[in-house]
Amino acid sequence: MQWTEVNISVGVKDIELAESIAIMAVPYGIYVEDYSDLEAQALEIAHIDLIDEELLKKERTKAIIHLYISPEDNPAEAVAFLSERYSAEGIAHEIQSVSRNDEDWANSWKAYFKPMEIGNRLLIRPLWENVEDTHGRAVLNIEPGAAFGTGTHNTTRLCLEALDRCVKPGNTLLDIGCGSGILSIAALLLGATKAVAVDIDALAVKTAVANGVENGFSEPEFTVIQGNLADKVSGKYSVITANIVADAIIALAPDALKFMDDASLFIASGIIDLRADEVITALEGDGYKICERHDDGGWVCLVCKKI
Fold first, then answer.
1. Residue 203 CB contacts under 8 Å (≥ 6 apart), including other chains
2. 8 Å CB contact between 241 and 165
3. Does domain 4-108 have CATH number 3.10.20?
4. Amino acid 208: pLDDT
5. Is the Cα dihedral 219, 224, 230, 235 positive or negative?
6. CATH superfamily of 114-306
7. pTM of the model
């Protein structure tokens, strides 16, 4: 089996948050190369003060996070997710990817991305796969390109399942951090009349627009905006989705309330289970009521209402 090595260089001050985000993408095969406190660590761990000259020459202001990703976990999507989330958190970063057997890793993962039934009403179909029998499900055609969101990751799947349960005909949707646009398109296929998707990443916006067209949706029915929530969005929405990271959810939740009425739902995912209680406490403090919690593979999705 071919593996992809992903090397992420970040400033030492950002290493803890950067590592937490990296674990979201791949919760295995990860180690951090950090020499910022080399002398102190050598004394504390090995009880020595004689350090190899080559180690002393290592970069001290930056750390490198090393990930090793198997093909069925979609290396291209993992890299896109990491770049999106680091940019959203303001973490300066460089990402390099190397295929261990020199094959085109950006495309080889496609062999492992198959059509998936989600909930009771959706079928996710990658563009390179044919589906003969949809079993009456709405078919969402997806080409992730360089943006996060194919439905294979636990966080995206939890959101899609929540939309399958919650979206009613005539609803409107606001998708914060839209990535590939998969959540907005799913809502439209499930009966929503309007979806507005927002992302700070230009490549994600381009991918979301293309995926919308592939599924027959464009403006004004499907609007994709590059920018942040507060500056670019107006109005009220039946459902708001935020499939991002815990810190970003905590930060944007107060603003999201402005776009909700008493019947609106806020679906938050991308929350690692170790931080679920922290996110719940923050949401409740902002004025949300937690209506549903769903866990999958160490990830948590919350469905909330405005108190």
1. 80, 145, 146, 147
2. no
3. no
4. 92
5. positive
6. Vaccinia Virus protein VP39 (3.40.50.150)
7. 0.69
